Structures are given as C-alpha cells and as structure tokens.
Amino acid sequence: MGDKSIKRFYFSSLRSRLILIILLTLFPIFLLILYNFYEQRRLAFREIQTNTLHLTQFAVKHQGQLIEGTRHLLIALLKLSQIRQTDSIGCSSLFAEIRKEYPHYGSIGASKPNGDMFCSGYPMIRPVNSSEQVWFQDTIRTQNFSVGVYQISRIRDKPVIVFGYPVIDETGKIKALVWAGMDLAWLNQSIAKIDLPEGATLVVFDRDGTILARRPDPEKWVGQSIQKVSYFKTILDKGRGTVEAPGVDGIKRLYAFTTLEGLPEGSLYVKVGIPTQRAYAYIGKALMRNLTLLGLIGVLSLAVSWFISTFTILKPVSALIEASRRMAAGDLGSRAGLSHHKGEIGQLAQVFNEMGESLQKQENNRKRAEEALRESGRQWSRTFDAINDSV
C-alpha cells in the first residue's frame, strides 16, 4: 500500500512539473496579451480624445461665428439714430423690418438703462422690463457685449438666449441697450449640420448648466439642467479640458469641453462627448478572443503533453519502479524491458538491467560457492567416517 502511494505521488508530482513547465511557457504570452489589451485601450482613449477635441474646436468655431454675427448686428443697431434718440415708434418699425432679415432671432429690441423696453421688432402686448435679466445686468456692469442665460422670451413665449450691447453717449454713460434673443430652435437646427460620430453628443449650455442646444434629441433636453452630472463643477472650474463620465442620459462618454469665444469667460460652454464603451467593447472582445485562443492552446498542449508523457516518461518510469520493487523483493532476474527506449530513460533502463545481471551473476556465484562448500564438507565427512571404520 505504501509503495502504491509513493508511486502515485511520484507520478502526480512528475505530471505537475510537466504542467508547470507548460504554464510557465504560456505565462509570458498571457502577459503579452494583457499588455496589448491595455496598450490598445490607451491608444483608443487617445484617439477618442483627439477626435473629441477636434469636434469641440469645430463646434466652438461654428458657434463663435454665430455669436460674432450677433455682436456685429448689435453694433450696427446701436449706431442708428432711432436708438440714440429712443424713438420708440421709428425704432420698432425699423426693427420689424430687420428681424425679417434675421429670422433666427426670437426677439430683438432696445431698452432704457432702467430696463424698460422702448423698442421691439415684435409687437409688445404689455410693458416689459428687463432689469432683472442676467444679460441686462452684465451689460450694465461690464459696459460691453454680454450674454444671458436660458430664458423664455416674454414677447414671443419661446426659449431664447439674449445678447446685449450698451449704447454709450458722449459723456460715457449708458443711454440705452440693444439686444437680440437667439431662437434656440434655430440654434439646434444649426448644430444639426455638424457631423458627429455615431453615439456622440454635442451640447451648448449656459453658466447655470441649462442646455441651450443639444444633438441629438434637442426637444427632449433643451431647457434641462446638467448641474447634477459629476463633472459640471470641473467644467466651471477649468473652463476647458476633457473628462470621462456618464452624461445626463446615463451613457459614459469621453467629453471635451470649452467656453465659447467672443464672450466674457464662463458665459457659454460647448461640450462634445464620444462614447468609449463601443471602442472599449471591441478591444475587450479582442482580449477575450485572444485569452480563449490561449486557453485552447494551453488545454491542447496539456492534453498532448499528458498523452506523450504517459507513453514516453510515465510508463517507462513505472516499468523501472516495478522492476526495482521486484528486485528488492528478491527477484534478481527482474528486468526493465526498455531496450527499445532511447535517451536518458533508455540509458537508465540499460544501467538497471546491467546492474540486475551483475547482481544475478554474483548471486549465482555465491550459490555455487555455497554448494561447493557443502560438497567439500560432505567429502570430509565421508573421509572421517572411512577412517573411523578402519580403526
């Protein structure tokens, strides 16, 4: 029972060593596959990051042209005599003609320094005061071109983003403010012309995080806030950069964000997000495919090595062990019977057989010597008996 346990342990240990050798051979390949996976993931991230930044820059340029066009329009309007003279009737009549040329403005008009509107390109149903509006307060404070936040036009009841410009008299005081409210429906139509990768998003939002324009699904998201997304504070703090995080729709993307040019810093923002999951999923599938292939190679290698080792190593070793056990039990005629084997095991079997033959010869010589001694003893006994009989 003890011999069988030793043999089983020995074979198990020998097979374990063979398996270990194969696994150690496959381990560098496994590390190479993992390295390749992380390298591809890093390169994919950089490619997405580059594409996102390019798209963001293009979107900023596109929006910047719209903002610059609005600024030039307001500069042209503030030079009109009807504005400087606060001619309500003449100004409103002129603005009504101008807004036909610029239908993308949901409202256009002029207000006094106290906020009272005295001119509008659209009919005013009731008096309107803009003194509490963000765009109005910023224009008064900076005495420069300013922009507000998302609001519903009180003249046309449509979502707009209002741009304002001060009319300054000879004494340096603000005489009036001209403004134009860009129709957000038109703004969304304009960004729809920008080509985006599948699954990507483009968002224009104000300093409060309210979405002004979005692609895709503007009708669902315009007017919604992104303040609750994890990276909103990062956008406000940095102004421009990249971040990988879930958006308002819960889909994880790599976002590139920046402020719009031509406005006070932090007034309006643009962000473009490209989903990373699709690129990472492809790389993940490649990883699983490579690992599966490596696993199949490993299993095949183990099976082949198991089969080959059984016939080339384990069985010959088993024969040697059995022959050794029989010889230890006294059967000096026991032989390994591996004369056909070559290599180290064949040499070991040959040495074992030669040792067995040597031991057997010695045993035969010992037996012949013992038999000769016994025969000699018998002869001496017969001689002594003959002497005794003669006496």
Describe the structure in your own words.
By secondary structure, the chain is of the alpha+beta class. It folds into 3 domains: 2-36 and 282-372, no CATH class; 47-62 and 194-275, PAS domain (Beta-Lactamase, 2-Layer Sandwich); 79-187, Beta-Lactamase, CATH 3.30.450.20. It contains 9 helices and 11 strands. The strands form 2 sheets. Strands 1, 2, 3, 4, 5 and 6 form a 6-stranded antiparallel β-sheet that branches. A 5-stranded antiparallel β-sheet has the order 8-7-11-10-9. β5 and β6 (174-183) form a beta hairpin. α1 runs antiparallel to α8 and α8 (277-328) packs parallel to α9. The longest helix is centred in the first third of the chain and has 77 residues, at 2-78. It starts with a helix and ends with a helix.
